[in-house]
Structure formats: structure tokens, C-alpha cells
Design brief:
Layout lengths: L2 H23 L4 H7 L10 H23 L4 H17 L50 H15 L7 H6 L7 H10 L1 H10 L3
Helix pairs in contact: 1-3, 1-4, 5-8
Length: 199
């Protein structure tokens, strides 16, 4: 399996996991759906859109497996290039898409159902020790690369919730969950750099 085959297979697996979550989210009302994930602005996908995406995704996975079995390394590379160019050139700011859903536990119950905990009052404690002095945060190479990618995508007009999945598609980047952690940790500096960088 070539590196491109591996990257495309991993991307298709992430999309399939996302579509499985969207299939479950079809049963939620609009309010619960809105709380299910930190969604970018989009029109909520209907059942037929989710089913069509699942069908096409399975077709693409089958074609990738067939080409890989034949030793065709150019097919995955072509898919990767097309995805990259679509991100840079072909996509416009649209709301009709299926956003990537992640496997994280989400409480979609109405807020009124959640009961406050009944704990006994706490006894006063001694004042906490002073926290240790913070050392300057020096980003490693992967962190610096993700920050640079995020700044670039923001200056090109991409929305914050799209960044992790866009960056994860690029070659030699960390896994998407690690990218999410980096983005959360460095959000303020990324947004500051993006404001100072011409588009």
C-alpha cells in the first residue's frame, strides 16, 4: 500500500464514520441536532443526502481497493490531488454540505431533564499552593506546521470548524484529533496571525 493509498483510505474511513453518526442524528429534533456537534454553518442534511453520500462513498472505497489490488498507485494520488484542488479552487462558501462528525460523547438531552447534583456543603480548605511558573510554549515542528496551515486556510476564507478536517487531508500531518487539540490550544495566536496576514 502506497502512502497515498493509506492517506486516502484513512480519509474515506473518517468520512464513513462521520456518515454513520449523521445517520443516527437523523432521528434528533433540530435543537438536539444543533447540540450534537460544534457544527459549521450548514443546512442540515436530509436522509436521502446522507444515504446518497454513503452509497457513493462505498463505491469509491471499492474502486480504491480494486486499483490498489492491481498495483495502481496513481489512482489514490489523483484522488488526493483532486481533493486538494477542490479545497483550494473549486469550493465556494456553501451551506449545503455534510460536515464532518466526530466520535465524541454528546449529551443531547433537553437541558430541563438534567438534575443538579446534591452534594453536601464543602468544608473550607487551606489556600492552594501557588502554581508553578509557566515555561514559554515552544511549538514542535508538527504544531508549527498545523498553525501555519490554519493561518493560511483562515486567510483564504475558510471557517474555523473546517480547519481540522482540511489540514488532516494534507500530506505528513498529524491525525485529526491531534490537530483539533493543537488548534484549540493555539486558537488565539492563530486568529491573531490570520488577521495580520494578507489574504
Amino acid at each position: 500500500m502506497s502512502a497515498a493509498d493509506k492517506r486516502i483510505a484513512e480519509l474515506l474511513d473518517r468520512w464513513q464514520a462521520s456518515l454513520e453518526l449523521h445517520a443516527r442524528y437523523l432521528e434528533l429534533d433540530d435543537a438536539a441536532y444543533a447540540r450534537a456537534q460544534a457544527w459549521p454553518t450548514h443546512q442540515r442534511p436530509t436522509r436521502w443526502v446522507v444515504e446518497l453520500a454513503r452509497t457513493r462513498l462505498l463505491d469509491l472505497k471499492r474502486q480504491l481497493a480494486e486499483r490498489e489490488a492491481r498495483g495502481d498507485v496513481t489512482f489514490a494520488e489523483a484522488l488526493e490531488l483532486m481533493g486538494f484542488l477542490t479545497t483550494l479552487l473549486g469550493s465556494e462558501h456553501i451551506e449545503r454540505f455534510i460536515p464532518l462528525a466526530t466520535k465524541k460523547p454528546v449529551d443531547v438531552r433537553p437541558a430541563a431533564v438534567q438534575q443538579p447534583s446534591r452534594r453536601p456543603p464543602r468544608k473550607p480548605q487551606a489556600p492552594p499552593a501557588a502554581p508553578p511558573k509557566a515555561t514559554p510554549d515552544v511549538p514542535d515542528k508538527a504544531t508549527a506546521t498545523v498553525i501555519a496551515d490554519a493561518v493560511r486556510f483562515l486567510t483564504w476564507g475558510r471557517e474555523w470548524p473546517q480547519l481540522a478536517s482540511l489540514i488532516a487531508r494534507l500530506a505528513d500531518r498529524p491525525a485529526e484529533d491531534e490537530i483539533l487539540k493543537i488548534l484549540r490550544r493555539h486558537r488565539a495566536s492563530i486568529e491573531g496571525l490570520a488577521r495580520r496576514t494578507p489574504g
